[in-house]
Amino acid sequence: MFPRVLIAGVRGGAGKTTVTLAVISILRKMGMKVLAFKKGPDYIDSGWLSLFSGNPCYNLDSFMMPKNKVIQSFIERAKGYVSIIEGNRGLFDGLDAEGSVSSAEIAKLIKAPVILVVDCTKITRSVAALVNGFTNFDRDVEIKGVVLNQLANSRHEKIIRDSIEKYCSVEVVGAIPRFKGIKMPERHMGLLPYQEHEMQQEAEEFIGKVSEHLDQNKILEILKNSPHINIPKRAKKIIPIGEGLKIGVIRDRVFQFYYEENLEELKKHGVEIILINSLEDKTVPEIDALYIGGGFPETNVKDLSNNQELMEDIKANADKGLPIYAECGGLMYLCKSLVTDEGEFPMTGIFPFKLKMFKKPQAHGYVIAKINGNNPFYERGVELKGHEFHYSKVIEYESLPPMSFQMIRGEGIIENLDGAVYQNTLGTYVHIHALGTEEWVKGMLKKAREYKESKNG
Asked: Known catalytic residues?
């Protein structure tokens, strides 16, 4: 039995994250063990889901990983928990007219019932038509409840409730009023990372208010009646070929964007993860490789640039051949400098790029990259499926370093190229997911082992 529900919106911004956090909060207060999942490439919502559930949040994405891996990952992790899955954008929004890579596709893969969140701003009886459209659009997607969000007053709510009761086959499981002056903190087309948000208490109070307007009995009934799901064959046992290896991970309020699965895959192979703080630590510890994920270096740029000791030590280790894998924010950190509204700030200087922050995204969405050049972690010919989302762009460089990725889909670093290389350092705007890119784990372990042996040689 895998009690589960996927919470989706009729569009992005309908309030699905707020509702998801409220449902998680209700279930935890009832003493249940809750595990959260996020559909699609996302770190910020995942962070809030993890904070409220008290457990790591995992991602389910049928673009970045094969469909069988989506099912397998869910089954392996969901056992013994109540699983709450947050969708992304509108329920049926995908890459094409067939809705591939949509939240609906994930719901069908793991046979999850759906709660649909509707923003009721400036709409009344038409909500019933909207709900009917969603419930009839794909009968293989089981919409079991509707949450009405942004209600103006009790009269507004009554008209919509009565209309749904009269014309629709699903129940209203929540009716949330329009709260004035309070909401979840936002930036960059989404929520502010909880690590940066100093008002977590206020966020929890807001979610508490929202929780009061959800029908917990109806939601529990949906969870209780989750359909049977076939359990796939157990994956092959992993041989711990990474035993004895230490991989550093810069993880703090600057660099927060890591898929938990990526770190878990390293640990499954016997790797010891050594956490590093980019703002406080002054030297690189004794490690065999370094992994720098994404984040928002631009919002912490003064503090980052003030910690010259760590940046100089990272550069010195890169010169010695330490394997370093840097994604997006990590790439920015390894460049020559970063230009923001506050001025130009020196970064680590491994790559010769001067980057500038812009008000609008310079790249956003799924990517496909073909490995067509030598690099420390991937063999030529490998095709990576991932995503990119960055407001920074290269505005100047003295000479272009070796670039090992050709972007088939997406922007990359410059001129549809990505995968900048310096000795055993690779910098990229591309975020990958380890469950869909097994070559990443193999490459990290291989280079870490080689480096360790060269030190001990």
From this structure: 328
Q: 324 or 186, which is more confident?
A: 324
Rounded to whole angstroms, how far apart are CA atoms 420 and 423?
A: 10
Query: Is 239 part of a structural domain of the chain?
Result: no
DSSP 359: S
Distance CA 7, CA 418 (A): 35
Rounded to the nearest 5 degrees, what angle is found at the Cα of 397, between the Cα atoms of 391 and 400? 105
Are the beta carbons of 396 and 354 closer than 8 angstroms? yes
* Structural domain boundaries enclosing 209: 4-224
| Structural contact between residues 160 and 148, judged by C-beta atoms closer than 8 angstroms | yes
The whole-number pLDDT of residue 181 equals: 54
DSSP state of 414: B
Q: Decide: helix, strand or coil at residue 427.
A: strand
Residue 257 gets the label, from left (phi > 0), alpha (psi -120 to 50) or beta, of beta
Lowest-pLDDT range of 99-108, 201-210, 306-315: 201-210
> How many angstroms separate the Cα of 172 from the Cα of each of 42, 212, 317?
28, 14, 58
Predicted model pTM: 0.94
C-alpha 104/C-alpha 85 separation (Å) is: 12
Give CA–CA dist 408/370, Å, rounded. Answer: 7
C-alpha torsion 172→178→183→186, nearest 10: 90
Q: Which CATH number does the domain housing residue 344 bear? A: 3.40.50.880
**Do residues 184 and 267 both lie within one domain?**
no
204 and 254 fall within a common domain: no
At residue 338, what is the residue type? L
> Closest by alpha carbon to 73, among 54, 86, 88, 57?
57
Q: At what angle do helices 200-211 and 16-29 cross, to 10 degrees?
A: 80
Residue 188 has pLDDT above 50, yes or no: no
Instruction: Give the span between the Cα atoms of 287 and 290, in whole angstroms.
Output: 7
Cβ distance 7 to 37 under 8 Å? Answer: no
Full DSSP string of 238-258: PP-TTTT-EEEEE-SSSEEE-
Strand pairing partners for 386? 367, 432
285 and 216 in a single domain? The answer is no
Q: Does residue 232 fall inside a structural domain?
A: no
Place of tokens 């909500």: 127
| pLDDT tens column, 252-264 | 999 999 999 999 9
